[in-house]
Each structure stands twice: as structure tokens, then as C-alpha cells.
Write a structure and sequence with these properties.
The chain is 33% helix and 20% strand. Helix 2 packs across helix 3, helix 4 packs parallel to helix 5 and helix 15 packs across helix 16. The strands form eight sheets. Strands 4-3-5-2-6-7-1-8 form an eight-stranded mixed sheet, with helices on both faces. Strands 9-16-13-10-12-11 form a six-stranded parallel sheet, sandwiched between helices. It contains 28 helices and 31 strands. The chain is of the alpha/beta class and 839 residues long. The protein is elongated, with a radius of gyration of 42 Å.
């Protein structure tokens, strides 16, 4: 069924049909506006390979799916739901005669899981595949698996304007690439980088809209990162153009969550002489036809979620668009005539733009994705058996399966889908929310679970209130509740109510509201939070992340919260949504997540172990009770580690005997090497596990408890019996001098020193030697007042050379003491008086 629209893609329809007749897959590359989304599907309806079968065309967004289906129906002279229809999460227009069904990407995954043979479907078209959504990658991988195992007659067509065509062709089995190179109107590109001083995006947009209105005909399409920027820009435009009605100017938003009626206003060509200013998120970048647009103003920014497997949390980041996306946006100005594209960045900045956007499969939360894979019979280690353009990162896959195990969706370890997991697959939402609804049913609060799931699916509604208390949002879902409220966006509330009606068969009841925190905790067990300091607004989450409430948030009065929405830049993100939890509720409803252990910490003040019985939920300490330090409930290895790490901080309580032995042995280690142990404080501290740990028992709970027998036994074993037998010969503790005195050797000196009064060594000619004669002992010769008069390691030389100078000086100071002319023949003595001569 050939359509005559004059669009460039019509030139390659015969080639494309022939390729699909002979091959199982193809890639179609066509410029923006070439007509691939609206012309290709109906033009293939009469192809013999379809045999009256159905075409499923996947679109990355609901707005694109609805728009494409309606446009195809219009070209066929029909209404949507006849030959061409659509199916999305929020509604459908399709019937028994529908042969072209335009669906959002997640719908295909549901269909394959329900019936892998896809009865009646002959062609799958993946439109705008360059956007690389998570569901598109998953749908293509499953479709290729189905074709390989069950449906070798299933045709697959991948279409895009900006795509690495050869790479996707290889994935499809070296599929042919068909290119549409039809007429494209020229687009003048202007770079108008804003002054970064005092940067206000809404003012920059208003200024460039005013410039564009006066420089080029046609409607204006403005690309902005998100809904917030769109609202701010429209407010600014109304200030700049207060007479917009008189000037026939329309300021229209366009984003995925906009009501369908308001989307139609943006997507319908304006009646003359009106000019439209359409302010859009990236939804208008591809697959959506925006008639009448001849001018594009591109901010160059987009907002993307970044997921961290470390804490299982998302955060939104505003990032530069890729060059491919910028080209898609520029192409929107050339649908009906020569266009103008104003880029709000410089050519120098553009050189740093990435060529393509990062595929969602590499950045996103993979929980829903991995639940689908588990439903397909895959585990973390078998995911690579599917054919991926980019294989999902293993760290994110492992985190996702761990979460699914925590939600009882898969079995721990084997990661097989459970009965509960099969049930979660039936819900078109994140496994956390599906699990919450299932838990709500078991607690006889099904409508509350559905209400919470509906609220959590709508970001604008979540942030609407002035505090984070989710309970304050719930009354808007009660029967006969108002359609709006202070700070509540009407459109967001309408979407929440729509989802709630889809999920719940029963009205919401206020009597269930007290279970709000419990149900949130079931969905987000890793976001249960405890106040770090009462009423401070600072919390620790059970996943270990620190978070805070806004300063005016009344929820800071509660010790425990569940905080499902935690976002923000900086080291400490902000809690934007929370519900109260009580200690009793945690004990009752989260018993499986609570662990109990007896653990020890080192108390620096008392230099001893403090032992406690601790209940934990993840990183949170729920309760702590002190126990006797010697309790047998404490595992020995844990006690030993804490004890050793604690005593390592301080000098050990050695006895005088042990200190003396250590100095002597350390001298021998320095002199003779490793045959004698290294007893330096650093080495002993580093090797406590080797020499001290074997002597520690339950009674050792402090540094002081080591004193006495414990250290003595450990030390003796460390030195060894054989070395102790040699010690006195190699490094004697005392030396006996000619006077008969036994004097202690100072081994702290290096080399060792003996301090002795000069009169006690008269007649001593040989200097004592240590370490088997290797090291002469340093003699510190003292006066009668015990002051050093000479230091020498060579007594013989002292007597013959230096003694006479010492004698001359000492005789005047100490005349009553003995200073003989010949010290080698004098009688050594200890006293102060001169000794009697030999008889």
C-alpha cells in the first residue's frame, strides 16, 4: 500500500521491501523528517512476506507512539484503532482489524514474556533506535532470541536518523543497510553563546525567541532540559511579551507527562496568523512531528538519570547533548522549508560534545530490566548469552539481582525467579513498587499500596508539598478529594489519580495511613533512616548513605523514617519524600532484615574492650546493650582482632626483667643479625598475632590484663630456650670488676657501656668484650662523686696514656682518695679511703 506524501523515504520503499523479503533483518537510515515513522509501516502492509500478518512498531515514548499511530491513520483516511492503532501503559486504540500497532517499548517485553511466539506478528520495527532506551535494547535482545529459537520467519527492522548503522547491522547478523537520501531543506545554523555572567536560562531563551521572531518566519521549537525549565521560560516569555494575545503569539509546553489535550495543542499546526513558541523536553527531538516549525532554539542541555550500584540510588544530572542529538534537533527546522537553528553554545564548546549519547543500559537502574531477564530464565552469569549492542555492566547487574533477592523476587544465590517474582512481573512498574503493592495486600491495605505506587511514579507530585511527609499527599486520592491544592500541580495530580485507578479496585481509606512508612520500607529497605542526632534533620540510611531533610521540614521530629526519594548534589543529598517509622514497626515488619551480633570495640579511655549486643538493620544500629567483657558470646576471632588492634596503640606493660632482656637481645640482633629476634617496638607491634595472640584467652580484656605472667610467657617463647642459654655468655647482664663489684651493663647505649668508679678497676688491663669478642665494652670511668672522668674502650691504652692527666686533676679535688702512681699494681677497692698496701 504505497502512500504518496512526497516525503524522501518513498524513494527507497521498493528496495526496503525487497531486502526484507530475502533477509530476516534490515537497518534503515533516514534524515529527520524523511517520513520513516509514518510512511514505512503502511507501505509494507501489502508485502508478500507479511501474509496479512501484523506490524509492531516500537516508539521510545508514549507521546511518539500516539502521534505516529494517529498520523498513519490520517494518511490512510481512517481513525486510530482501525488499520493503525496504538497501545501504551495509559491507554490504547486498537481492535481486531488493527495491523499496524504502534507501542511503547516496554509493551513488547510484556508481550514476549506472555507468549514468546508473538502469534500473528510478522514484522518488528524499532523506530528511533538511536535513543538507545533500556527497553529498546532489552526488546531487541529478546526478539533476536525469539527469532533464533522459535520464529525464524520473524522480520526485524531497525530505523533511525542518527545511528552507527554498521554496528547495529552486525548485531542483526550482517543485515543490509538501506539509506534514504531524499530532499532536505537547508538549515542556517547560528551559534549565540550566552554571557555566563549572571546566567539565567529563562532570560536567555526569551531573548533568543525575540531575536528569532524578527529574523525568520515560522513557528519556534525550543529545546530545554526538563519541565521546570519549561515553566520558568514560559513565565519569562509572558513578562517579555505582555501583549502576546494581541501579537498572536502562543507559548505552549511539550513534555511526556503533559495531558493529551495540551500535547495536541503543541502538535497541531496553528491557524494563521498565530505563531507558536513550543518549549519542549527532548521528546520532540525525534519521532514526534511538530508541524509549522521553521526555527529551533537549542539550549544544548538534557537531563539524565545516573544510577550508582554502590548505594542503589539515582540522581538526575543535567548534561550536554550529544552531537547526534543536536543534529536531530536542528533537523526539526527543515520539515517544510528552509529553517534556522540557534545554538546557545559556541563552536569551541561544541568540539567537547560527545558524538553519541550514553546508552541507558550503561547508566540506568537495572532492577526492572533484570527482573525481565530472570523471567526469561537468565541469571547474572548467563546474561551474556543474549545478543547485546552494549552488554549491561556486571556491577549494576549484580546490584539489581541482589535487590531482587531482597524483595523475594529471585532466590538468593541461584537467582531463579520465584512465584512472588512472577507476580511482580505482572505489574507495569519498578519491582520495588510492585513488591510494595503485594505486601500491602498481605497487610489488608491494598488500596494504600496502590496509592503509594501511584504517587511514587510522579516526580512533580512528590516535590509539590513544602515538606517531605508523604502522608500529606495521600488525602488527594481519597474519594471526593479536591482536584488541586496549595503547591500541587493539577496535571501531576491528574496523572497520579489515573495510575491509582488503574491499580486499585477499592477506594483509599484513611484508616490505613499509619502503614505508610511500613509499606515504603518494604519497597525501599535500603532507605530506612535513623536520625544521627535527635531533631537535627541529619539521617543515616540503612545502605550507609548520609542524608538530610530541608531545614523547614517537620519530619525531623521523628527518629526513624523511610526515605524513598533522596537526591541532590554534594556530599549529603536531600530527603524529598519520607514517612515515619516507629521502632516497634521496624521490629514487627522487618524482622528478616534485622541482624543481631555481639561485638567489641576498643575503649581508648579505659584501654580495654567494650562488648555489646547490637541489633542492626543494614548500617543502622537499632539497639545496643553492654555485656561483660569476658562474655563467651563474643566470637574469639572478633575479640582477638579488636584486642590486638587496641593494645597496638600503646607501649606494652613489660616488667623490668623483660625490658632488660629485650635490650640485651636487641644488641645481639644489631650485632649478630637475624639469628637473634628483632625486638624493636615497631616489629613487636606489627607481629602481635604471631607471638602474643597464642597466649590470650577470654580473661584478657584490657592492656593491664597482659601484665605479669602473660607477657612473660609470650616473651620467653619468642626468645626461645636455646637463645636464653647463650645470652649470658654473649651479652651478660652484669660484669664483675677487680673490686668484686658486679655492675650492670647499660645496653641502651650503642655500643653498651659499663659505668664504674676508677678505683674499682685498678689492675684491670683487658677491656671486657661482648658478642663473642666482637664488641669491646665502653668503660665509663667515674670520679668518687660518680661523675665521668674518662670514657674508653681500651683500658690498657688509658693506663699508659691518659691516666696520669686524670690523676693530676683528681688528686687536687679528692685528696683523701687513692691516686697511685702505678694503677696496675694498686689494690682495687670500693670505698673512699685509701686502702692499706699489700703485706
Amino acid at each position: 500500500m504505497r502512500l504518496h506524501t512526497g516525503l524522501p523515504v518513498e524513494n527507497i520503499l521498493d528496495e526496503l521491501e525487497e531486502v526484507l523479503r530475502t533477509r530476516s533483518a534490515a537497518v534503515l537510515c533516514a534524515d529527520p523528517g524523511a517520513g520513516k515513522s509514518t510512511v514505512v509501516p503502511p507501505s509494507l502492509l501489502d508485502a508478500p512476506f507479511l501474509a496479512d500478518g501484523k506490524i509492531l512498531m516500537l516508539e521510545p515514548r508514549r507521546i511518539a507512539a500516539v502521534g505516529a499511530a494517529k498520523r498513519i491513520a490520517h494518511l490512510l483516511g481512517e481513525k486510530a484503532g482501525q488499520t493503525a492503532g496504538y497501545r501504551t501503559r495509559f491507554g490504547s486504540e486498537a481492535g481486531p482489524s488493527t495491523r499496524i500497532e504502534v507501542i511503547t517499548e516496554g509493551i513488547l517485553t510484556r508481550m514476549i514474556q506472555k507468549d514468546p511466539e508473538l502469534p500473528g506478528v510478522k514484522l518488528l520495527i524499532f523506530d528511533e533506535f538511536h535513543e538507545r532506551s533500556l527497553q529498546a535494547d532489552l526488546g531487541l535482545a529478546l526478539a533476536l532470541d525469539v527469532r533464533s529459537a522459535l520464529r525464524d520467519d520473524l522480520k526485524i527492522l531497525v530505523m533511525s536518523a542518527t545511528l552507527d548503522a554498521q554496528r547495529i547491522a552486525r548485531l542483526l547478523g550482517d543485515a543490509p543497510v538501506v539509506k534514504s537520501e531524499g530532499h532536505v531543506f537547508p538549515v542556517e545554523t547560528l551559534h549565540r553563546p550566552p554571557d555566563r555572567h549572571g546566567f539565567h536560562l529563562e532570560k536567555i531563551i526569551a531573548s533568543n525567541v525575540a531575536f528569532a521572531l524578527n529574523s525568520h518566519p515560522g513557528d519556534i521549537l525550543v529545546f530545554l532540559p526538563g519541565e521546570f525549565e519549561i515553566r520558568m521560560a514560559i513565565e519569562e516569555l509572558r513578562k517579555v511579551f505582555p501583549d502576546a494575545g494581541t501579537q498572536k503569539l502562543l507559548f505552549l509546553p511539550l513534555y511526556g507527562n503533559l495531558p493529551e489535550r495540551e500535547q495536541e495543542l503543541a502538535l497541531t499546526e496553528a491557524e494563521k496568523p498565530f505563531r507558536k513558541m513550543i518549549l519542549s523536553t527532548p521528546v520532540a527531538e525525534s519521532s514526534v512531528t511538530v508541524p509549522g516549525v521553521r526555527i529551533v532554539i537549542d539550549s544544548g542541555w538534557m537531563r539524565v538519570p545516573r544510577f550508582s550500584p554502590a548505594n542503589a540510588m539515582n540522581k538526575l544530572e543535567t548534561v550536554r547533548v550529544s552531537l547526534a542529538s543536536a543534529d536531530q534537533r536542528r533537523g526539526r527546522a527543515a520539515r517544510t522549508g528552509p529553517g534556522l537553528c540557534i545554538r546557545l553554545w559556541s563552536p569551541a564548546e561544541e568540539r567537547a560534545f560527545p558524538s553519541f549519547g550514553t546508552p541507558e543500559i550503561l547508566e540506568a537502574d537495572l532492577a526492572s530490566f533484570c527482573l525481565e531477564l530472570a523471567g526469561w530464565g537468565l541469571r547474572p552469569d548467563t546474561i551474556s548469552t543474549l545478543r547485546w549492542l552494549d552488554e549491561p555492566p556486571r556491577a549494576k547487574v549484580d546490584q539489581a539481582f541482589s535487590l531482587l533477592a531482597e524483595l523475594d523476587a529471585v532466590t538468593p544465590g541461584t537467582f531463579r525467579l520465584t512465584k512472588h517474582g512472577e507476580r511482580l512481573l505482572e505489574y507495569p512498574m519498578h519491582p520495588r513498587l510492585a513488591h510494595m503493592i503485594a505486601c500491602a495486600e498481605s497487610l489488608h491495605a491494598a488500596s494504600l499500596g496502590c496509592a503509594l505506587a501511584a504517587i511514587l511514579s510522579e516526580r512533580d507530585f512528590l516535590r509539590a508539598a513544602s515538606d517531605s511527609d508523604l502522608k500529606r499527599r495521600l488525602p488527594f486520592l481519597l474519594p471526593d478529594a479536591p482536584e488541586s491544592g496549595e503547591g500541587i500541580d493539577r496535571n501531576a495530580l491528574r496523572r497520579v489519580k489515573t495510575v491509582f485507578r488503574q491499580l486499585s479496585r477499592n477506594p483509599l481509606s484513611p484508616r490505613d495511613f499509619d502503614l505508610c512508612g511500613v509499606l515504603l520500607g518494604k519497597a525501599y529497605p535500603d532507605r530506612i533512616a535513623k536520625a544521627r542526632v535527635p531533631h537535627s534533620g541529619e539521617y543515616t540510611l540503612s545502605n550507609g548513605v548520609q542524608a538530610k531533610l530541608l531545614s523547614a521540614d517537620d519530619m525531623r521530629m521523628y527518629e526513624y523514617l523511610c526515605a524513598p526519594l533522596v537526591e541532590g548534589a554534594g556530599a549529603v543529598p536531600t530527603i524529598f519524600l519520607s514517612a515515619e517509622l516507629t521502632p516497634d514497626a521496624i521490629e514487627k515488619h522487618f524482622r528478616k532484615l534485622i541482624s543481631e551480633e555481639v561485638s567489641a570495640v576498643w575503649n581508648d579511655e579505659s584501654k580495654s574492650l567494650t562488648v555489646s549486643r547490637i541489633k542492626r538493620l543494614g548500617s543502622l544500629v537499632l539497639s545496643q546493650k553492654n555485656l561483660p567483657a569476658h562474655t563467651p558470646d563474643l566470637p574469639g576471632e572478633a575479640r582477638l582482632k579488636v584486642l590486638l588492634d587496641g593494645i597496638r596503640k600503646y607501649p606494652l606493660p613489660w616488667s623490668a626483667r623483660e625490658l632488660s632482656l629485650m635490650r640485651r637481645i636487641s644488641f645481639l640482633h644489631r650485632t649478630l643479625g637475624d639469628e637473634w629476634p628483632d625486638l624493636s617496638p615497631e616489629t613487636l607491634s606489627a607481629t602481635l598475632e604471631e607471638w602474643l595472640a597464642p597466649f590470650l584467652t577470654e580473661r584478657h580484656t584490657s592492656l593491664e590484663s597482659l601484665r605479669g605472667r602473660t607477657l612473660a610467657d609470650a616473651f620467653d617463647t619468642l626468645v626461645g630456650h636455646g637463645r636464653r642459654m647463650k645470652l649470658d655468655a654473649l651479652a651478660p647482664e652484669r660484669i664483675t670488676v677487680p673490686s668484686g663489684s658486679s655492675i650492670k651493663v647499660d645496653y641502651e647505649s650503642d655500643p653498651p657501656r659499663l659505668s664504674v668508679r676508677l678505683q674499682e678497676v685498678f689492675g684491670m688491663t683487658e677491656t671486657p668484650k661482648l658478642a663473642g669478642g666482637r664488641v669491646p665494652l665502653v668503660m665509663d670511668l667515674l670520679s668518687p662523686a660518680m661523675r665521668t672522668v674518662q670514657i674508653t674502650a681500651d683500658l690498657a691504652h688509658f693506663w699508659t696514656d691518659s691516666y696520669f692527666l686524670v690523676r693530676k686533676d683528681m688528686r687536687g679535688r679528692y685528696p683523701k682518695h687513692d691516686w697511685p702512681e702505678n694503677p696496675l699494681e694498686a689494690l682495687p677497692h670500693r670505698g673512699s679511703k685509701k686502702p692499706r698496701t699489700h703485706s
